[in-house]
Amino acid sequence: MSFAAGRPVLAIPGPSPVPDRVLRAMHRSSPDIYGGELVDLNLRVMADLKRLAGTRHHLAPYIGNGHAAWEAANANLFSPGDRALVLASGHFGRGWAQAARAVGVEVEVLDFGNAAPPDPQRLTERLAQDRAGKIRAVMVCHVDTASGVRADLPALRAAMGDHPAVFAVDAIASLGCERLLMDEWGIDVLLSASQKGVMVPPGLAFVWFSDRVAAPRAGVGPYWDWAVRAQAAELWRFWGGTPPVQHIYGLAEALAMLLDEEGLEVAWARHEGLARAVWAALDAWGADGSGIGANVAAVAARARSVTAVALPGAERLRGWTVDKAGVTLGLGLGADRPGDALRIAHMGHANAHMLLGVLGVMQAGMTALSIRHGAGGLDAAAAEIGRLA
Question: For the residues 44-52, what does the mean pLDDT come to?
Answer without folding.
Answer: 98
